[in-house]
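thread: overnight batch results

M.L. [08:02]
morning all. the overnight job finished for the chain we discussed friday. pasting input first so we're all looking at the same thing
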Amino acid sequence: MSSPAHSAVAPDTVAPVRDRVDACPGALQTHSAADGELARVRVPGGVLTADQLRVLAAAARDLGDGHLELTSRGNLQLRGLQAGTQALLGARLADAGLLPSDTHERARNSLASTRSGRDGEGHVDASRWVTLFDAGLRADPALAELPGRFLATFDDGRGDVSGLGGDVGLLALAPDRVALLVGGVDSGLRAGLDDAVLLALAAARAFLAERAAQGSTAWRVTELTDGPARVAARLDGPREPKVDVPAAPLVGPVGAATQVDGRTALIGVVPLGRLTADQAELMADRTAQVQLTPWRSVVVPDLAEDTVDDTAVDLFRTGMVFDEASPWLRVTTCAGRPGCARSLADVRADAVAAVATRTLPAGGARQHWVGCERRCGRPTGDVVDVVATPAGYRIEEG
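M.L. [08:03]
and the structure it wrote out:
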């Protein structure tokens, strides 16, 4: 790795001006990258069945580069897809139940509290909200117009996903009282457990209505003028004094966790979010369902006591991380070379080398390595930017 220069310049946080329609990739509308086509598969709530995981692993191996990339929204990407394979990929995903709507597929971005309903934390089981919201979204033709970057968050009250900047969100304040979040802040609107999803769907429609009223092409609520306030003003319902939204944790849970039913969930971090097809198939052989998290980790739940150790060892041998002290909980990267033509470096290889040789910059602080000034994939919160330049890497500590 070239010697880095040091700077204290913070990245630009001004909302971008959207002068074009959102072209965020999907499973059918792929993105042409330097290493082939890129497809993004939406996984509401991050939940995949074992059979779906096997289908994705096979598609990555047969059609792509053999990897499934975990995104910060609990979705998956397939890279290096061969030209002309989009229809075949779409057919495979549809057969597996991963593409229930051609028209709404890019709008199905939602995050849910990790292990909700399994570990006894939180006030409600947020996974139920995900299912109902996704069904309601797909049933409304107007919501197909939501941009591919529009995000819904469903927090059972533990405060793990509400702070991740969702456009609409539900935060359980009690078992029977739910706050509606708009643009990542509390709107003051409240609903009961049975009406909460209807309110979240109404907020998504209100975003589209406000965007049209402003003559905007905004992709996110916060890109509208007074977006959170104006979207919330379009909604009816009881209001209460607003509460502070919990800040999202910088890293997610990792390791083994006991479930309320006595079984165990393993949470493993995938270095750089690059899950191999073999790893995916191994997990599919050990459990009926997994959950992808915003921290590029995977929850392998419902393990019987006599299978936990063997599963952990087998996954560890493939490179998954179960140690909360590992630097891989603090290091992320963009795609870099050869996948991105804009990149000035193979940032993934350089980051791997820095971890292996214990030469991470900034004392090993939470950091994001990028191949150019665009800083794609930058996580939220305090993070050091390691930016490739023609002369090496520049370190920017915010």
